[in-house]
Design brief:
With about 350 residues, the protein is of the alpha+beta class. It has 8 helices and 20 strands. It folds into 2 domains: about 5-230, P-loop containing nucleotide triphosphate hydrolases (Rossmann fold); about 235-340, OB fold (Dihydrolipoamide Acetyltransferase, E2P) (Beta Barrel), CATH 2.40.50. The longest helix is centred in the middle third of the chain and has 17 residues, at about 165-180. Bound molecules: adenosine-5'-diphosphate and magnesium ion (MG).
Length: about 350
């Protein structure tokens, strides 16, 4: 079922924390809401769930205006970072909670609890108490509880933030599997973690202080970000301040080939190049500088190179004989791997 924000504005004590949000999550789609802390992600989710009332704008679920409906009438499942399980209830009773509140007949409750525990791999733990479970298992129970009501949409607010890195990647795969098994359930997934967003989402909505900055598929936002904020938030990025030249751009006195579209000659702009597309050694668009840092990352080396006062990152395949701090090096990148962005905070 689709979720639609129609110019939704939310204010707390007169301060706007969500500014005219327009966004549609298609039926069965996973949309990540990605942005730094305080950008308004949780507020957007709460507006869908009905826990906060928009100052203006409407929220639609499957085409129905639900702005004035109370939360329990919206058919929504919600999972939050802190699990929020009832400590005195067994797993099965935690999962049954929303069904009992909805006065579901007992036989129906039993079946749906079993189904939700099965889906989340927790069927063997129905009689346990939350304190007898690991963090990852508790979060599975929280997901089972959200699924038990057979929600039309699932809202997830940083559901993996409380887990350690290893558990997080396992749970990420679990969520992807869950989505495959529930292809009709739309998911709005709030996170500040770009890896989670890139891994799980069909599309990513990038939030920046109360506003939607960009929305697109992970590939679109990674390959062709529209601005510096999106470029740096979705994947690592070299953002080079440049001036548009007759052919290509000028970066600190070096001419570089790049598609400048219809940008005016002499205009300031930012050239975005992903670190893994920067090569070491001679090639097109060569720039020279001095190594300031080098990190071994297993399969790759990350080089930090000072070029005319700017730091440029290059992720290259593991080097047998890596350069050392202070060594002069030449870097290059293919003209088609660079994206020209409007001048932002760097210019
Ligand atoms: N209940 C509230 N009362 C007042 N201000 C709030 C409340 N909830 C959130 N805020 C403020 O709204 C802004 C957005 O918060 P939030 O939506 O939680 O951001 P995010 O989830 O992206 O970190 C923040 O500045 C936060 O301090
Ligand atoms: Mg939040």
């Amino acid at each position: 079922m689709s979720i639609r924000f129609d110019s939704v504005t939310v204010a707390y004590d007169g301060r706007v924390v969500l500014d005219s949000l327009d966004l549609t999550v298609e039926p069965g789609e996973v949309m990540a809401l990605l942005g730094p802390s305080g950008s308004g992600k949780t507020t957007a989710l709460r507006a869908v769930a009905g826990f906060v009332r928009p100052a203006s704008g409407r929220v639609y679920l499957g085409g129905e205006d639900v702005t004035d409906l109370p939360p329990y009438r919206r058919g929504i499942g919600m999972v939050v970072q802190s699990y929020a399980l009832f400590p005195h209830l067994r797993v099965e009773d935690n999962v049954a909670f929303g069904l009992k509140a909805r006065r579901t007949p007992r036989a129906g409750i039993r079946q749906r609890v079993a189904e939700a525990l099965e889906l989340t791999g927790m069927a063997g733990h129905a009689r346990r108490y939350p304190r007898e479970l690991s963090g990852g298992q508790q979060q599975r129970v929280a997901i089972a509880r959200a699924l038990a009501i057979r929600p039309r949409v699932l809202l997830l607010d940083e559901p993996l933030s409380a887990l350690d890195a290893r558990l997080r990647s396992g749970m990420l795969a679990e969520l992807a599997r869950l989505h495959r098994e529930l292809p009709d359930v739309s998911m709005l997934y709030v996170t500040h973690d770009q890896i989670e967003a890139l891994t799980l989402a069909d599309r990513i909505a990038v939030m920046d202080t109360a506003r939607l900055r960009a929305c697109g598929t992970p590939r679109e936002l990674y390959r062709a970000p529209a601005d510096e904020f999106t470029a740096s938030f979705v994947g690592g990025a070299n953002l080079l301040p440049v001036t548009v030249a007759a052919r290509g751009v000028d970066f600190a006195g070096t001419g570089l080939e790049a598609d400048t579209g219809d940008a005016a000659v002499g205009a300031r702009a930012t050239l975005c190049v992903r670190p893994h597309l920067v090569g070491l050694g001679e090639g097109p668009n060569r720039i020279s500088g001095t190594v300031t840092d080098i990190q071994w990352r297993g399969a790759t080396h990350r080089l930090y190179v000072r070029v005319a006062g700017h730091s440029v990152m290059a992720d290259v395949r593991e080097l047998k004989d890596p350069p050392a701090h202070g060594d002069p090096v030449t870097l290059h990148f293919a003209p088609e791997d660079a994206v020209l962005l409007p001048a932002g905070v760097l210019a």
